[in-house]
Design goal:
The complex is a heterodimer.
Chain A: E1 6-17, E2 20-32, E3 37-41, H1 48-56, E4 64-72, E5 75-76, H2 82-91, E6 93-96, H3 100-103, H4 110-126, H5 139-156, H6 162-165, H7 175-187, E7 193-197, H8 205-222, E8 225-230, H9 233-239, E9 242-247, E10 250-256, H10 257-262, H11 267-274, H12 314-318, E11 324-327, E12 330-332
Chain B: H1 6-13, E1 18-31, H2 35-39, E2 45-58, E3 62-66, H3 73-80, E4 88-93, E5 96-97, H4 103-110, E6 113-116, H5 130-140, H6 145-158, H7 175-187, E7 193-197, H8 205-222, E8 225-230, H9 233-239, E9 242-247, E10 250-256, H10 257-262, H11 267-275, H12 318-322, E11 328-329, E12 335-336, H13 339-342
Parallel strand pairs in B: 3-8, 3-9, 6-7, 7-8
Antiparallel strand pairs in B: 1-2, 1-4, 4-5, 9-10, 10-12, 11-12
Helix pairs in contact in B: 5-6, 5-7, 6-7, 7-8
Classes of the chains: A alpha/beta, B alpha/beta.
Chain lengths: 350, 345
């Protein structure tokens, strides 16, 4: 049995607000295996980004992880002190964001930013990983080495004339080039897990194709496990091995890609797939999901989707559905997807 | 004729009356020269956002306009509406030359040409109620208040908002509802022609479908003509009768919607269509054309074919570099600006 690189169990990240507790992530569980890409799909506010930020230990205040476990290569990250998390970020896991212009430092040359992350990583290597040792004597020399390694990384991510680009500021690069720099920084430490939050959403489709292609090549070369967060089912279906669908802070369905596309069991997944126009297929009639996502601090007691679900009945409105296995690696949290007469599923299945 | 899609056949069988005609339209913007550059006597450089576009939009049709950021699609739409003063060229609306009209005569025409914006957060005045926002175009026309109220309520009903929403402010609505307000504001003056500039790009997919269906229903009910701008090829293929593809200020291909995706001819269109991630099995992926590099800046664009620097066709040669390819008809209402495809190499 292959051990997952990353395992999330019953994760709960809540935000206390004046209007009540916003349960941004509420009981999400999944596993990410070596070398695979897991797509996390859902609409704005479903908790997909917050799930990734929780894993990175970057939940913005006043948000807090209030329950669950995040196991990265067997080690539980929840409750770890910031100093130790900082060591793991970059070394074992890295994250890239939708808008590289707001994540890159605007007043620092991109080369220096790549070099910085290489050197921090290098320091961890020589200090045995606890980040406490003083800088080694070779620090000065290491700067030149780090610079050369950064040029090589920029070349690897497909930046033309990398040595010159090292001297550029972020605003001098195009959106696609900036995202390549972010990927180079993420790769600088050769992480086991790459969390990619809408990495191509701000890019034009031809540039998106370039970036997805790059991420795929990186995965094949380094065996990186990727958690790809997106709202675009097209991107998911070109890139992911497995998919998890989220709604209102919960995971509602997960399955291998082909299974999810051909045999979606949750009404929300079905609704999402029906609402997407298909390129060049004008016979596919777009059917929207009626209504809007409920406010997260005022969720209905039962199934979170019951306010928009065409199948919902009184039971759905009162009792929250548990996970139910419907096929190999395919589970769904929906009362209506469970065949009549069978008990509800086991919540601990990953 | 074989190979012609039903839409093309329909458009050919009954040549619809043109509502909007664009002839040789150019929209150039000066790049501000720095002080040093002026001292050195450098000439003003120009961003050729739209650089020679010919286009006809028939009454009742939806013309989709696609292209990547910076291709000039939004500028083209705004020049057609004369929100910019075009540098050169002519725009005719219902046969009248819009580009030459003095402001006083332009105003009644403005009522017939409206625009829906991408961002329903930025395009609605946060300090006005829905009634004030939707009613403003009517108030400008001098319509009495009672009449305005009646029209606004009627319009809200048409776009799927309830009468109780009339006194609310934009922040009290979701993105999809805000876009409905934007649509109501555009349609309240009974326009004939509506430019929809990325109307669903800021919305979640489930809401996007609601708005697409609403726009289609309103078109059928009110006999509207749409110029639908988007970077999303799936959306444009769903809603459009014909599609124009823009690259660096030019239309490089124009065809009936089904035809464009079944038979993209321009190398840029082929790359664009192939780059769209599609629903389907992961393994059964078709060949993707990955374009190298980024589009060149529209400041002083290349002389010949604008796509020359990124073109991957083996046939490309000196002619492409020096001679600008015209948008030539290749049959069935399909037009393409490429020497290799048109056989003019």
């Amino acid at each position: 049995m292959i051990e997952p690189v990353l395992e999330v169990r019953d994760l709960k990240t809540h935000f206390p607000t004046e209007r009540g507790i916003v349960k941004a992530v509420d009981g999400v569980s999944f596993a990410l295996f070596p070398g695979e890409t897991l797509g996390v799909v859902g609409e704005s506010g479903c908790g997909k980004s917050m799930t990734a930020l929780s894993i990175m230990g970057l939940v913005p205040r006043p948000g807090k992880i209030v329950g669950g476990e995040i196991r990265l290569m067997g080690e539980n990250l929840v409750g770890k002190p910031e100093r130790e998390l900082r060591r793991l970020r970059g070394n074992r896991m890295a994250m890239i964001f939708q808008d590289p212009l707001s994540t890159l430092n605007p007043v620092m040359r991109v080369g220096d930013q790549v070099v910085e992350s290489i050197r921090i990583h290098y320091r961890d290597l020589v200090s045995g990983g606890n980040g406490t040792t003083r800088l080694p004597l070779s620090w000065r020399r290491s700067r030149r080495e780090a610079w050369e390694r950064a040029v090589a990384l920029l070349e690897k991510v497909g930046i033309p004339a990398p040595a010159e680009r090292m001297m550029a500021y972020p605003h001098e690069l195009s959106g696609g080039m900036r995202q390549r720099v972010m990927i180079a920084i993420a790769l600088s430490c050769n992480p086991a897990v790459l969390l990619a939050d809408e990495p191509t959403t701000a890019l034009d489709v031809t540039i998106q194709a370039q970036i997805l292609d790059l991420m795929q090549r990186v995965q094949e070369e380094y065996g990186t496990s990727i958690l790809l967060i997106t709202h675009d089912f097209g991107v998911v279906s070109e890139f992911c091995h497995r998919v998890m669908v989220m709604y209102a802070g919960r995971a509602v369905e997960a399955a291998p890609l082909d299974e999810l596309l051909t045999n979606p069991r949750h009404p929300y997944t079905q609704g999402l797939l029906d609402s997407i126009p298909r390129l060049g297929d004008r016979t596919h009639v777009v059917r929207p999901i009626e209504g809007t996502v409920p406010e997260l601090h005022a969720l209905p007691p039962g199934c979170p989707y019951c306010t928009r679900c065409p199948l919902a009945d009184d039971y759905c409105r009162q009792v929250e559905p548990a996970r139910f296995d419907v096929g190999p690696g395919h589970w769904v949290a929906c009362h209506k997807a469970v065949p009549a007469g069978q008990p509800a599923g086991q919540p601990e299945e990953a | 004729m074989a190979g012609v899609s039903p839409e093309a056949a329909r458009l050919q069988a009954e040549p619809a009356e043109p509502l909007v005609e664009v002839i040789g339209l150019k929209q150039h913007f000066p790049v501000r020269a720095s002080f040093a550059e002026r001292l050195l006597g450098r000439q003003t450089r120009w961003v050729r956002a739209v650089d020679g576009v010919d286009l006809t939009i028939a009454r009742g049709e939806t013309l989709g306009l696609v292209g990547e950021s910076g291709s000039g699609k939004s500028t083209l739409a705004r020049s057609i509406l004369r929100l910019y003063e075009p540098t050169a060229g002519t725009v005719r609306f219902e046969g009248r030359d819009v580009t030459a009209l003095p402001p006083r005569e332009l105003r009644p025409l403005r009522r017939k040409m409206q625009i829906i914006f991408q961002d329903p957060f930025a395009s609605l005045n946060a300090r006005r109620t829905v009634e004030q926002i939707v009613g403003l175009p009517l108030a400008i026309q001098g319509m009495p208040r009672q009449e305005i109220r009646r029209r606004v309520l009627e319009m809200l009903d048409k776009v799927g908002l309830s009468p109780s929403h009339i006194h609310r402010y934009p922040h009290q609505f979701s993105g999809g509802q805000r876009q409905r307000i934007g649509i109501a504001r555009a349609l309240v003056v009974n326009p004939a022609f509506v430019v929809a500039d990325e109307p669903v790009s800021a919305l979640d997919v489930s809401i996007q479908a609601q708005i697409i269906n609403l726009l289609q229903r309103l078109q059928a009910e009110l006999g509207l003509t749409y110029l639908f701008i988007t970077h999303d090829l799936s959306v444009v293929s769903y809603i459009s009768d014909r599609i124009a593809v823009m690259y660096l200020g030019r239309i490089v291909e124009l065809a009936p919607a089904g035809d464009l995706f079944a038979r993209p001819l321009h190398p840029y269109t082929r790359a664009l269509v192939s780059a769209v991630p599609r629903l389907g099995k992961r393994g059964g992926r078709r060949e993707r054309i990955i374009l190298e590099g980024n589009p060149p800046a529209p400041i002083d664009p290349p002389k010949g074919c604008r796509f020359y620097s990124r073109c991957f066709l083996p046939e490309k040669n000196e002619t492409c570099r020096s001679v600008d390819p015209p948008l030539a008809e290749v049959g069935g209402g399909h037009r393409v600006a490429c020497h290799a495809v048109a056989g003019t190499l």
